[in-house]
Structures are given as C-alpha cells and as structure tokens.
Amino acid sequence: MSVEPTNVAIIGLGLLGGSLGLALKDKGYNRLGWARREETRIQALVQDVIDETSEDVELVLNQADLTIICLPIPKIMEFCEQYADKFKPGSVVTDIGSVKEVIVIRGEKAFETLDVEFVGSHPMAGTEKSGLDASFAEMYNGAAVFVTPTDNSTNRAVKLVEKLWKDINTTPVQLSVQEHDNLVAHTSHISHVLALALTLAVLDCDEDTEKLRYDGCASGFRDTSRITSSNPQMWREIIENNQPAVLDVVKSVEKEWHDIRTVIENKEYDKLESLFAKGKVLRDDWMKYRYN
Predict the structure, then answer these.
(1) Rounded Cα–Cα distance for residues 207 and 47 (Å)
(2) Under CATH, to which class is 7-175 assigned?
(3) H/E element, 233
(4) Which CATH architecture has domain 180-291?
(5) Which residue, 22, 18, 24, is CA-closest to 4?
C-alpha cells in the first residue's frame, strides 16, 4: 500500500463526519462516505461533502485505505466488530470518539486476526449542534487531535492517521489511552457537567419565576450554558464510558466550590477578589496560548 492513502472512507455523516468530508476537499483524497439513511448519503453527495457513496457499506469499506468512524461511542465499537472482515486488507481504521480506552481495546480486538490496524484518535472540535446540516469545513481548523497508539500500533499506521489530521490543519498529539481519558475529563467532560448544573439551577423553576429568569439571563448565561444544548444521549454515553475520570474531576470541582462558598459565607471579599483575579490570569493565559 502507498504511504499516502488515496481512498478515505468516512463512516457517519453527521456534524463531525460531514465537517471532516468538507475539510478534506481538494486535499488529494478520494472521499468515500456512508450513512445509514439514504437521504443523508444523497445530501452529502449534493453538497460535495463526499465524492462517492453506496447503499452497501461493505463496498465502501473494501475500497478504503483509511477509514474514519464518525459514530457515537457505542456504535464505533459495534461497527468495528460487525464489519471487521469487510475492511480492505492492509488498511488502517481510526475514529473520532471522545473517550479512547474502551474504544481502542475493542477496536484492536476486532481486527487482531486480520490485516487491518486500529489507531484511536480524537479531534478537540465540535459545536453544540448536530447533523449534516450543521457541518462546516473550518470546524477542525487549528484544533489539537489526540492520537492514541498502543504497543500494538505500527509506525506506518500511526503516521497515516496523523497525516490525515495534519492535512486539514490540525495538530496531532500522541497520548496513551489512559492519559487521554483523564485529560478530556478535565478539559471537556467536566464543562458539560457544570453547564448542566448551572442551567438546572437557573432555569428549572416554577412558571411564575420562569419569565423573570428568562428576562434576567443575558450573554453571560448564554455563553456559560451554551453546551447544555448538546445532544443529551451523546453526553450520557461519553460520561458513562469515562466515569472514573469524570468522577475524579467532579470531586475536584466540589472542593473548589466548597472553598469559594466558605469565602462568601465568611464575607472574605478581598480573598474572593483574589480568586477572581487568579481565575482571570489563568484564563487569559490560556486564551493567548490557544488563539494567538
């Protein structure tokens, strides 16, 4: 097989798969795509998200040098197991799942007796929206993509996966599956839990209070609660498959919250201001790193 794959299959044409297809346009790949619903496959062709498709997913898999599975976490694992012997011999398979250990373990096991390699990856990109209509070519631009090789991964397979992500202007970063799951619990998963708690605390109220709350919530609430509009089933599946790491971060946040509450209860407003100042510096430094 050539070092640079020609045929790339995108399995799942929602927000992430659709945006990947758009980002890969004119990057030297023949973009094969498959989605369960016929109307989605047709729409993807019409909107130039992919170059080719088929009702038969096996035909797509058998042509692909590199396959990216853009499905929900349980479906990624099920897909690998169901279609393991249908992938092109010598090909490489990766995914975009938000947790890695459970996916990589089952992905590698599905292909262990076949001439197919599974290497996990996770682009740190997305929005609170879902579906092909929400996809856009710039979504991955500038993002970090965590690639999680194991002792079973060949250098060739890892390089193929990393090249794909580099070709759409992302930065691959190698981590172990355990390091990845602990990291994203801190940097992503906890944000959704906190946004949920905030939204429930503010908007889960009686009808008499609701209109006042609606009128009283402005851009600050909008920005901090935005990700609560994400797909509920998806976030249940993410946290279910990364429960130990997420729970550790929840406990860490509880300690910070308790300390802040104590400061307020004790009317230690100079200390509270110092905490706000510390938080501002930490976030401002991150903003400079991330966007400059």
Answers:
(1) 43
(2) alpha beta
(3) helix 232-240
(4) Orthogonal Bundle (1.10)
(5) 24
- Identity of the amino acid at 207: E
Q: By C-alpha distance, which of 90, 82, 93, 136 is closest to 115?
A: 90
- Collect all residues with Cβ–Cβ distance below 8 Å to 159 and sequence separation of at least 6: 3
Smallest CA-to-CA distance from 131 within 238, 250, 228, 37 is with 37
Number of H helices, E strands in the chain: 13, 9
Closest by CA to 121, choosing from 93, 156, 147, is 147
Neighbours of 190 (CB within 10 A): 19
The structural domains of the chain, with segments of one domain joined by +, span 7-175, 180-291
Which pLDDT tens digit goes with each residue over 226-275?
A: 999 999 999 999 999 999 999 999 999 999 999 999 999 999 999 999 99
Q: Exposed, middle or buried by CB within 10 Å (0-12, 13-18, 19+), for 244?
A: exposed
The answer to whether 7-175 and 180-291 have equal CATH topology is no
Phi, psi (deg, nearest 5) at residue 78: -65, -40
pLDDT tens-digit readout, 103-139: 999 999 999 999 999 999 999 999 889 999 999 999 9
By the 10 Å C-beta count (0-12 exposed, 13-18 middle, 19+ buried), 181 is classed as buried
Nearest one of 97, 61, 101 to 82, comparing CA atoms:
61
